[in-house]
Design goal:
single chain, about 450 residues, alpha+beta, three-stranded antiparallel sheet, 13 helices, about 25% helix, disordered N terminus
């Protein structure tokens, strides 16, 4: 049955086939895919993955579906190793490899396998999709220079290389897309996701016609019933063992509303994560290796909840609050209980796009504030290209943290290849002063999410 079903689906991406084969086997739930540190699983509230859903259908003109860039095997995003496998299996002709946004430039030569290898290098190496957005006509800034290694970007269309966000755990979102461009004032998350589905079909899938209301509704209904997280850790074992609350089933029952536990609201609790409280008992005991690994996860959770540091120079926080230095914990921004994104829209500039951390494969843009003359260099202006506001330069939302281990690399631009490197970035950026043991514990916790 699996082989027959797979043959029927050859027109779709290999990411789709992974889910299709599962669904053909009597529609299992809590299905899992291994990742470098364990297994991530998805719980489907409806009880099964419905592969007849428009999410898995090619509704545009270039062969793509939503599943082309949002694969269940990759935490409903994409990871470079699997993108590379798709390239090898198809000589770079899989639907994910399209020049409208998959290549480094829409003008890239893709006539041979070798040319395609070069043209899609950002997608292959970091799982980055090129987003093309121009400078708004009424922006408070102007583009002075575009240093684009691929020779395409201009003020009419900047090339912005970003990771596809997961299409799971969406009921916890306070903003849609890295730059919030699919978040509409006064509208519900359902409306935002519906508009996003239509925009993705017209853009990423090169659709000739908008989605029908029924197609939009079906896609949103599918996406908003998916809950994904790490369920098993190679060292700590099952993450719901010994009264642990890891895994997607408990995640699906996690209460949420916009503003829940917001740091600027009364009742903010920095102990936003309580998943592994039950594992505290093994923290100081000389127990077996598995119990000790669970204790490390608990210690990492406590570091995430309670370790204080000073936030300075963060656009979206220090300037917005008028506070040059702010004492914070990780949960000051990652405040949604047991989820980890911000519970209100809060785009921040953490320094991920500065010239100092720019890699040679990234464009670098030089902007000037039209009023003050201030100069800023960045690899991605972020939300500023949506609002035209200088104060939004290089600001991005923080993603849901659950299921991290399944979807490396990290940050919007793939700057950190591993969770270890992401921790190193924060340790340096905010002078956390983590000891080797504390760093290892924090990584253990983040891998368990």
């Amino acid at each position: 049955m699996r082989a027959v079903f797979a043959r029927l689906c050859l027109g779709f991406s290999t990411a789709f086939l992974a889910v299709a084969v599962l669904a053909a086997a009597n529609g299992p739930n809590l299905f899992g895919f291994d990742n470098p540190t364990g297994t991530a699983r998805t719980y489907v509230v409806h009880g099964a993955v419905d592969t007849s859903n428009p999410f898995f259908q090619s509704l545009g003109t270039n062969g793509r579906s939503c599943g082309s860039c949002h694969a269940a095997s990759d935490g409903w995003s994409i990871v470079p190793s699997h993108v590379q496998a798709r390239f090898a299996a198809t000589d770079g002709l899989d639907p994910i490899f399209r020049t409208n946004d998959g290549s480094n430039s829409p003008l890239a030569d893709v006539s041979t396998v070798q040319e395609r290898q070069a043209a899609y290098s950002m997608l292959l190496s970091k799982g980055l999709i090129r987003v093309g957005i121009g400078v708004p006509a009424d922006a408070e800034f102007e583009l002075l220079e575009a240093d684009d290694p691929y020779g395409y970007a201009s003020s009419n269309e900047l090339s912005l290389f970003r990771r596809p966000l997961p299409s799971s755990n969406l009921p916890f979102l306070s903003a849609v897309m890295w730059d919030g461009r699919e978040t509409f004032s006064g509208e519900s998350i359902h409306f935002d996701l519906s508009d996003q589905a239509n925009g993705a079909t017209l853009g990423h899938a090169a659709g000739a016609n908008p989605l029908t209301p029924a197609q939009r509704e079906a896609i949103v209904d599918f996406e908003t019933h998916l809950y994904t997280s790490q369920s098993d850790d190679n060292a700590a074992g099952a993450l719901n063992a010994r009264s642990g609350n890891g895994g997607p089933l408990t995640l699906s029952r996690q209460p949420f509303h916009i503003g829940i536990n917001d740091v600027l609201s009364p009742g903010f609790d920095p102990r936003a994560f309580t998943l592994f409280d039950a594992w505290q008992e093994g923290t100081h005991a000389a127990n077996d290796a598995r119990t000790q690994a669970q204790a490390a996860v608990y210690r990492g959770q406590e570091i995430f909840n309670t370790r204080t540091f000073t936030v300075t120079g963060v656009r979206g926080v220090n300037d917005a609050l008028g506070i040059p230095a702010l004492t914070a914990t990780c949960t000051t921004c990652h405040d949604t209980p047991n989820v980890g994104n911000h519970s209100v829209a809060l785009p921040l500039d953490l320094g991920l796009t500065s010239e100092a951390v720019r890699t040679p494969d990234m464009p670098l843009y030089t902007f000037r504030n039209k009023t003050t003359g201030e100069i800023l260099k960045t690899t991605d202006p972020g939300r500023a290209l949506i609002t035209g506001k200088w104060r939004h330069m290089s600001t991005f939302k923080g993603p849901v943290l659950r299921g991290l281990a399944a979807r490396a690399p990290y940050f919007h631009n793939g700057l950190a290849a591993t969770i270890d490197q992401a921790v190193d970035f924060y340790n340096t950026r905010f002078a956390l002063g983590l000891t080797p043991q504390e760093k290892a514990d924090l990584i253990a916790f983040l891998r368990a999410l």
